[in-house]
Amino acid sequence: MRELKIFSGQANRPLAKNICNFLHLPLAEITLGKFPDGENFCKIEEDIRGRDVFLVQPTCPPVNDNIFELLIMIDSCKRASAARVTAVIPYFGYARQDRKDEGRVPITAKLVANLITRAGADRVLTMDLHSPQIQGFFDVPVDNLYAAPVLNDYACSIPVPDGDRIVVSPDVGSIKRALGHAKRLGGKLAIVDKRRDNPTETRQEHIIGGPVAGHVAFMFDDMISTGGSICGAAEKLTSAGVKEIHVAATHGVLCGKAIEKLSASPITSLAVTDTIPIPPEKMTPKIKVLTVAPLLAEAIKRIHHDQSISILFDKGEE
Question: Which family, according to UniProt (predicted)?
């Protein structure tokens, strides 16, 4: 087999190191930085000719810097004669710009996919894409992993009296995800009817299903960005008589005033994975970080040995 090499960009080196620890591999050496004028610099510090290379780089904030760094890492590896380059993108930025919902707007998710492909990536490994159809934007194979098993394990670790668990979808678009979690966790299902007034503001009108009074609610989402939707849903559930509210999401973007909103909300706990690093100043007692490093490590090992990825989710996929 070709020798496996894992490199990390600057977006999330702790995650890359954890992946290497599970694979019992050293993190390969790379030099990244900027010239005085702000241009990015990259140099691969190891021989990768004929190697199977994996580049770990979520395109989280600062999104544009991290995307461009990923592109020049890919180009560096291709020009160094790597046999195969897999872009490991635990969080894919611009994923919400995946369609033309009005005139004269771009489909930026497709543009970023084109950039990654044209830079020379032979394969993409990502996690919980905002829309699964984004896989079709790439002209190379894409493996979209699910954090559902990790989130379900966390939810199961929270003690709940028999019959009191209820899984709540924070909006209509998340019903399929909520159904998948409810199937594996047990309990009832409810839906919060969310209305969007503008790109940054939403309001919660009704709770469909239930009843929710006296129950412990679990809400799951692919990402928490500004926190407006999830906090609004939590307030609606509290007014309906829910005892506790536990939220679990794959990507903790937590931008804008998200931390302030979450701290002031009735949410009991918030679990996010380490696809995006959370700065210490954003950590609060409510936030718990779950690692997806073992899942990504196993996927990398299976890709390297040309084995099935879908078998990982036979019992955990949503």
Answer: Belongs to the ribose-phosphate pyrophosphokinase family. Class I subfamily.
> How high is the pLDDT of residue 138?
98
Give the SS3 label for residue 244: strand
Express each pLDDT in 225-267 by its tens digit: 999 889 999 999 999 999 999 999 999 999 999 999 999 999 9
Assign residue 104 a region (left: φ > 0; alpha: ψ between -120 and 50; beta: otherwise): left
143 is known to lie in a ligand binding site:
no
10 labelled binding-site residue: no
CB atoms within 10 A of CB 137: 22
Query: Are residues 248 and 203 part of one domain?
Result: yes
Q: What is the pairing mode between strands 4-8 and 84-89?
A: unpaired
Parent domain of 9: 4-146+293-313
Whether the predicted pLDDT of 318 surpasses 60: no
Is 221 annotated to bind ligand? yes
Q: How many CB atoms lie within 10 A of CB 224?
A: 26
13 labelled ligand-binding: no
Q: Catalytic residue numbers?
A: 194
**84 and 136 both lie in a single domain:** yes
* DSSP SS3 for 102: coil
CA dihedral 181, 182, 183, 187 (to 10 degrees): 150
